Fold each of these.
Amino acid sequence: MKKNNIFLSFLFSLVFLSGFSQVKISGVVKDENNQSIPFANIVFVGSSTGTVSDENGKFYLESAKTYTKIEVSFMGYETKTVSVKNRDYNLTIVLKEEAAQLKQVFIYAGKVKKKGNPAIAILEKIWAKKRENGIYLFDQYQYNKYEKLEFDMNNIDSAMIKSKFFKGMEFIFEGIDTSHITGKSFLPIFINESVYKSFGKNKGGKKFREDLIANKNSGFENNQTVIAFIKDLYVDYNVYDSYIKIFDKSFVSPISKAAGVSTYNYILADSAFIDNKWCFNILYYPRRKGELTFKGNFWVNDTTFAIKKINMQANKSANINWVKDIYIEQEFDVLNDSVFLLKRDYMMSDFSLNKKDKSKGLYGKRTTMFKDYVFNEKKSDAFYNEEINAYDKNIYSKADDYWSENRQEKLNENEQGIYKLLDTLATVPKFKRIYNLVSILGSGYIEFNKFDFGDVFSTFGKNDVEGWRLRAGGRTFLGGNEPWRLQGYTAYGFKDDKFKYGISGKWMLNPKSRFTVGLGNRRDVEQIGVSLTTTNDVMGRSFASSSLFSSGDNSKLTSINLSNFFMSIEPRNNLNFKVGASYRTLESASPETFNLDYWVDKENNIKKADVSQSEIDFTVTYTPNRKTIGYGVERTEVTDVYSTLFLNYSKGIKGLFDSDFNYQKVQFYYRQPVLIGGLGRMFTTLELGKTFGEVPLGLLNVVPGNQSYFTIENTYSLLDYYEFVTDTYASLHVEHNFNGKFFSRIPLFRKLNLREIVGAKAVWGEISDKNMALSASNINYLAPSKVYYEYSVGVGNIFKVFRIDFSWRGSYRDVPNVNNFAIKGAFGFHF
């Protein structure tokens, strides 16, 4: 959500201005009945430069060369040649139905017949040879890669330029350019350049290593959250794959063997020499609206059947939020008669609050270029396993001469001006205020020199014990790559009239292995038992500790005093080992309504109301494919869609600092996101755990309930707090989001862009007789020994930001005073 808030805050920029292209035209293609013709082919006469009209028949086309005519065609209509001027906008081109075509059956309702289609025959040969193209032909490979990420403000009219909002910043409009894709004016505001050395291995187990050699930022270079958001937008993809993942959505590739023919119409449109290679040009467009598809064309060699050029423009009616347009170009180089290698990859996205043509927005662009391919130069497995994870200042301080030599594509005049523009903007007070607001929305912290105040989103709270709660906190911040950090907070409850606090510090002693030590202490009131898998995080506080948006009783809170010390190391990227020691005291924060009592001597009626416990723990956390930026003691995640494996062993030590219990506890947590082609994304979470020894309620495993009005991950929507108590458990959560796969085929729902969500949750657990006998609490122990389960259906993407879930209890329905049905919702920004 934070990352999406960042770009929404930027949707405010710019104006029209001519670029340097010789010919720029735009318009709409219609038939004689004044109905728009989607996916018509428009090409400059005497060239291979062309485009395809969108689903509303609209198009834009430009060229640096001088052309005076365009040719417009579509199957079933007469091809039309139209004279054009250098700047010819708002053309209306009317095509006539071809009489001979009316008797044929090649086209029906805009769909191309599959049988006998020469374009599909060519596709079949592409599928047969796709694994014989490019770098996959070689045992090992390496190349140099240059990447340029850019953000541009777009589509601002003259009224916006003259508005008070830009007063004092008028100079920024001096760098306006025009997009060759959309024809809209834009102003570059951010650029990030990187040079990489990449290595790969195909034989004997696929491996890949990419070393960052140089990096240069303009714009928000010190805001790690902004940079993380930008890098998260663009991931690598392969047009030969069946599905292309963009913004966590699976678009059907036009080269897809699994779904291409059932998703797209294909037309063999042209043939020509490209770099002395005879190639066929195939035009494609989607068969249905509302699906995650593209329109465009590609050139394919007639002997190797390798793709030479391809462009893909996303269907405007595709079920994706905050993005008005997506455009992709790829060019492949010819190594020899049989090997085509990726040379240039370009992707542009138009971010906007809506998909109206005149809406203001933000272009996000990525240009990636490849050169100096080397093949079969042997590298050992040890080379690929070596982690390069230390911060090297030389990477970020390369001289201008280095960049002039290593850029594979020169910056244009406006791109070069970004560095100077942002230096100047940084001195403008109004821009500083805008930047600070964006930063607060993104991180939740207010910057004060080397100290950040926050988290501002946790300032207010309320529960049955504290009443209204006021919190203030902060952290040290020295730019984001500092080796140490201190953070803390204090809070006051107006009902219990008590102050609470938390303070912690961590210090990374070795940047290469990320060897880190930390310690902290927290005294607070908290709802424990809202997570099966627990940690000793001093600064963490559960969502259920506040009842602003909760139902039912919220008085089962615990006063906790937790101190901990830990050491951690990361011998491999995303593999973390941690050893720690902690001491805690637990007691009820509301003894009148809830207690944690246990028997010390049941025969003599002696019991104790509080728990004192010393514990040591060892944890292994593995997060494959997790991407982060920054090299300080705390890093910023680029994406949250990755697998997580967590294993923890804890041992309670009786007598150490008057500790009460001896026990051993083992916990395992596994979360796996799975992108299932065109069927959406599934999340599965498995949790297992067992406590060996006799312990009271405060140290047992409580199945997490959810008494809030919101859908909360890893909780059970129909359980109350402490409804199930276990010392042995197994829990499984499965949720699948179809991303509108079925709603997109229902006319009444298609335009709403709703998304279908289904889920199921189950937990099994038991509690030993000894732990039952130890309890003197007013909580009645009940374990789900016969498996508790619940299931749900939901509708997401309501007004783009809301989802609603309907949940049913599948078992334990006859227990008194339980919820068998619930409606909950959740807010969030998602593409």
Amino acid sequence: MKLVLSWLTDYLELNPGTTPEALAAGLVQLGHEVDGIHTTAPAFTHVVVGKVRERVPHPNAERLGVCQVEIAPGEVKQIVCGAPNARAGLTVAVALPGAVLPGDFKIKSSKIRDVLSDGMICSVKELGLGDEHNGIWELTTDAAVGTPLPAILPPPEVVLEVAVTPNRGDCLSHLGLARDLAALGLGTLKPLPALTVQNDDGTFAVQAKIEGGACLQLNLIPLAGLTANAPSPALIQQRLVAAGQRPKNALVDVTTYVMLALGQPLHAYDADRLAGTTLTATQAQAGQAFAGLTGSHHTLAAADVIVTDASGAALGLAGILGGASSAITDTTTRVVLEAAVWDPVQIALSGQRHQLHTDAKARFERGIDPALAPYALQYAAQLLQQWAGGTVGKLATAGAGVPAPEPIRYHPAFFTKYIGVSVPNDRQQQILTTLGFGIREIQAGWLVMPPTWRTYMATPEDLTEEVLRVVGYETVPHQLPTSSPAQFGVAGEAVTLDRRARKALAGAGFTELLTYSFIGQDAANAYANGHTPLLQLANPLAQTDMTTLRPSLLPGVLTALAKNFANSDLGPAPVLQLAEVGKAFRPVGDKTGETLMAAGVLAHTGGRHWQQAVAVPEAFAAKGAALRVLEALGAPVASGTTVAEAPAHYHPGRSGTFSIGPFVLAHFGELHPTQRAALEIPASAGPLAVFELYLEPLLKLSAKPRSWQPSPFPPVKRDVSLLVAETVPAAAVLATLTKASKNLPHGTQLQAEVFDRYSGAQVPGGQVALGLALTLQSPEKTLTEAEVQAILAPLLAAVQSAHAATLRG
């Protein structure tokens, strides 16, 4: 919400000397964040009022003209200009050589197609005063040529960028923020502008009608005889621009102006484009087509609420978007203004259904002041009549509106009991009264009536919050609650595991991500690994990519990777490693099952140094990373097994699954080519190495700690090569060696690693040669060659027996 200071003073008489900084501090105290303060002062120099005396075609360019522009009495400069509206007699804004326009655009004399141009005739956008740039700015001023342009512009506006929280829809207006600031004592609230509009019986009449319960009140008022395409007053345009809006004409601007002023969204219909004179708020027909003002097209659902005329066509999606069929045009002279009160929940659901986010929706779904709608409508009609002439017809209303809020029983002593700070009764009464609450004393305290714009206020706790935010949260003393030491327990095992997993991934070189738990339906299906049905959201934040609870963390990690590539945010390392720890969701009966997981990706970026050539990560890089993390988390990795099977989103033949006993701990490998192709990642990144870890089994599988003392005696290393069937996993061979080494003589310890796997011309068909690096070390003595051979013999015999292996020479 952009709070324009001069606009605020229409509703709040500020205390003398109140600065924008004081207002910002007050808003923060009241619970509204202020993102910044800025002014709309023109950021330019050496720009003057000029008069075009002559325009002739450019000799070397069809679309350019050569203008003779008077920039001071008797002083003319030649300026080349391509604007279609540049013509003799026009008063313009001229930037002279040496001028610096917004965006650090410096003006100097130059030749354009061999013709000297000694300056620039400016558009509104080039001066930073608006968005209009279809031609040069046609000034309407009596100022003499040569007058500095800032001298004829309105004073700059001071604008506060206010972040209004979702529960305070009443503050999405200058009036709403004025109420809060008045309660804080920064000024005195002014009465609303008086209504002086005269309702003419001669103006055509309209009728309002409601079908169903989604519209609580529909107010309409007709206007006729308006000046077509009349501009809004300069002050109104200036305020709208300062508030981030783009003025168009009086008929359009009045709805935006009243919404930002009072918080009541309005809509204007071209009366000559309506069928009949009755507008009806009703439910849409399922499948009904609707074309919006923005050029968007929507297929409506039966749960949507629309406004129709006698034809039954949808003139607008209620409270969200007007329709193109009845939109205001440059020739409109008769309008019907609408101010309605819609069901907030209905508006929110329809907006999400059609992925529409408008200023009107933001206010309706958060709650407007239902009692203000008739006043806002007549105030808008009054302004429009002042700006564009014409006559105003009779107000037509349907619906009783929102019931009055229920009074709240409240005793001022409750504040001290609940908050722990004493605020005098009269001070509480003053604050609540200034905020619009009505107070009636009863025997047991007060009966407090919430204002119509705060209908959700219902409990004494709500009232204490209202008082406290005005008194100031900083007045509450810093004091911990009384508690026993046992009240604050140590985090549970699952929470501790989550934190340890994050540290383990960071230790393995991964950058941690935090992504949404919601993903799109297609992505969820692709990574579901057979876990169906998927868990759908009843009220998704977005219909395209946030409809389903994620069955895997990989979609979020891969989307983040794609964004890093798209923004070239890859860092200096030749391999980018991203990972996330979080919950995945799968249905368990009629409940939502959650499981703690981790997922990671390794992607080749190429690096930025000529000496940093690194191999593209592949399946074994993913496996190594996964096992490194599991080992850091205490998993007995040495006792695990690996099989060449993985979910369908992994590359077949370049992936695997790691398990310990009955527990699956990891899937790893290259991403399936189909999924890889769906990502907007350059082909130079190669295949993507990914892994998924199941963390909760680790609560049952943590390795038992054992005492260990370094041996003072040297280790002995031997390399052996075994021929085994190509179907025998290397992990199975290592497991056999580990099992056979449990009772070696002299307390000798064995460490075995696979360093090579070869198949080719020198190996019989159907077999592979496994190169094993064996390390033996005794804590008691230096092993002799004879002792080494005696130790190795039963180990190799166990492998030969278990896997039909033969020792290569």
Amino acid sequence: MENKFTVEAIVQNTHRISYRYRIEGDWIKYFRTEENWNNTELSPFWGKVFPSFEWMYYEYSVDIGNVPYSIAILPLLSNIVPMAWLFDAKIHVDEVDDTFYHALDSLLNGFKKYKPKWFEHTNRGNSCIYTKNIIQNQNSVQTVSFFNIFRAKKSLKKTNALVMFSGGVDAWDTLIDTIHLKPDLLTIWGCDIYPNNIKGWEVASAANKEVADSLGLNFFHIKSNFRSIINYGVINAHMKYLHPGFDNYWYNIQSRVSCLGMAAPFSYAKDIRIVFIGSSYSLEDGINSFSGSNPLTDENVKFSNTFTVHKSFQKSRNEKIRNIISWAEKNKQSPVLRVCWQSNGGQNCCVCEKCVRTWVSILSEGADLAKYGFDLTQDKVKKAHEALLSNAIKITKFWDATIANFKANPELSQGQHPLVKEMIDKLTGKLVTTFVHPITQQAAVEKIKLQDGMAYLGFSTEPPADLNDKFVWAGNNSGNLIFDHSIKKIINAELIPMNKRSDYIIDDCKAIITTGFIWILPNDPKATAWHKHLLNYAKDKPLIPISVGLQAHVFSPDFKIHEDTVNVLSAMAERCVLGVRGYYAANILNKHGIKNIKVIGCPSVYFGLDAGLGIKNIAQPKICCSNFRAFHGKLKDHEKKFLKYCASKDFTFVEQNQQTLEAGMSNADDYQLLKKWLDKKSEIFFSAEEWVNCMRSFDFNIGYRFHANVAALHAGIPSLFFSVDSRVTEMCEFFNLPLMSPSDFDPNKDIQYYAELADYTEFNKNYGNILNNFKEFCASNGITLNL
């Protein structure tokens, strides 16, 4: 008999969704059903936690009464789909959300990448769902494109963001990194605090609400018995038999997907566009501990027009704790960390492995434990000490950074309780572990070093001698060199010059980074031919586009991508996460069914990989540089005003192509004025280093060219950008770069006026968070950064 899960009804009111369902086939033994509920021998612990049968339900602290069926079904589906993959089952539902449905293929591929053996028997992806209707949804409150989220943050109190907040280290680190977005906080009652543990929930929820209140945020919760349906005792035994080393179904597979899925009705009702969830693990953690918490899975749980962001995959647990301590000291806060999953009282027991690992890590950062929720009595210290000595608490790779801290700063153990000092002395004698990264399968010690077989299709190091050949070599736009130089500087990959045939490299590399698709025109197929060729030779290797962008004059919601381009990008998205330049491009790609994407802006802006990077504002510029679009077509009046202004101020001018001024000028006097200025003050560069060094001689830059302006930023010089098209506008909004409309340029204003408009306060404030987002994109694709 085939395995089937049939949803027969959804019972929904203002705050609760419950489901009536029928389970058929051999796989029924892996579930707790009404028939076997009282057989506690199958799962004695869960028989105590859930003593009587109830249909699966979700209770929300907001009104979800108007959430449509196709969204209301997602909490159940996210909980059941991984089981359907494991046991080749069919799930029958009336409707399902389009975004969620189409992301399931990528979600399955994400599981396969970190644990290929578990799912090697299936390619079902979304084909496990049998439904009458696949529904396109928009979040309920208003229809707003993704790029408007970041535009809105300057004028709205809320920015449609949500942080899954348990109160632990990962959650606090995520909240601190996203606090500028004023996110809602959402806690789930039913994960580690079960629905029958009312006292524990009251303590934990009160603490999390206090956090929200103190920061001026909103706190919400979901209560659910979603864990009651799985018969953990039977499925864990089954999986351990098939896959030695398997830990448990909840930890390895179920937890993250099911929790993110239950946020779907909440997100629809509250118009949430971004759901942030903190990473449980990082690039430094080994394959045996790398659970379902990773970017490859989390970021493929999507619904309606809401994306998931897996935060801080590049950070170790100690780095997260360091971030929390730094923020707490700077803001005079005392964030109580709730890390314990063994305590029934909603507080930290202080003696389990996770508690001990956390409070010892806090000590290794030189902080006061009392401020972070650890009430260490003498008895608790004694129990923790005994557990470490007896090896009941095992020292694993998760302790490595803490041990390294104590080795580097032995004074941190001085003055501690004698037993604590003895514990630390024992820890510092442990060896740092060697591990294998689950995606790249490469061994590393301490800091992970990813695969050396990454190829980057870029420009050769040395340009040709002839000027015309130089332009051809630079793609007829020398601004490409700033882009190319930045990638070479920040990414560890073997350069393969684009002017050579690339067939021979495919067998010698693990993946290929391409800068193709940075300029997709409406309904234009021309960008696809070469990449079709590469895909054929690459076979199953990832071909990673690192900056997909659309070229349009305005943010038109009707932008049409040619079918050939959609097909090629879709094929790429099956193998990797696509890097996208902005939220407008993300929205259009999403409409065309391309969903495995992450907005990263332009890699040229990550030139330093330094979260502390700062561009200084300048009030009185003295030596200025300018740039302009290519001289093609008739110049508009406001463009002439800009050029004549720069000429009258005798600004230096940076050109990027060979097109001449004549074609755009109808007035002879204007032409002579501008030509004389350009002949005297024009510069063009075919070396990014020379370009950046030249920019250091100025104190302000202004112009239409994105990469010419970024070259100034490389030199630490503020630039004022112009919103000349959709690509420039969405990238500036993503990075918080100062931006003005070309038509607003007033030649009667002094240069000081434009220097004041070039305010880099927001850029400097948010650059660290945006940089972390880029690092997470690279990590999800196995790209090594030159940190």
